[in-house]
Amino acid sequence: MSVEVTQSNTEQAEKFQIVDIDFVADILAESHICETADLGTTLVHKVKHPVRGMLIIINTIGSKHIVLPA
Predict the structure, then answer these.
(1) CB 45 within 8 A of CB 60
(2) Which of 5, 6, 46, 49 lies at a CB distance of 3.0 to 4.6 Å from 31, suitable for a disulfide?
């Protein structure tokens, strides 16, 4: 998965959320998964949510997970 860094998505990256696994499960259930990258103990999903649009979800083994606009 590659992400082009631009001024607009750099500003959007400041809007990330740290969420629990239940929130991640809800977002994934409601979304179309476009891409997934397996980085060992971390999964990075690029998804299209019907309301929130394109999102990147960083899903780790720990109790904290990150959701940010793509």
Answers:
(1) no
(2) 49
Q: 39 in a domain, yes or no?
A: yes
Strand extents, DSSP E, the chain? 17-19, 32-38, 42-49, 53-60, 65-69
More confident residue, 66 or 41: 41
Alpha carbons 6 and 36: distance in angstroms, whole number: 22
As a whole-number percent, the residues of the chain with pLDDT over 70 amount to: 79
Is 16 part of a structural domain of the chain?
yes
Mean pLDDT, the chain, rounded, equals: 81
CA contacts within 13 A on the Cβ side of 10: 4
1 found inside a domain: no
Residue 30 lies in a domain: yes
Q: How many domains does the chain have?
A: 1
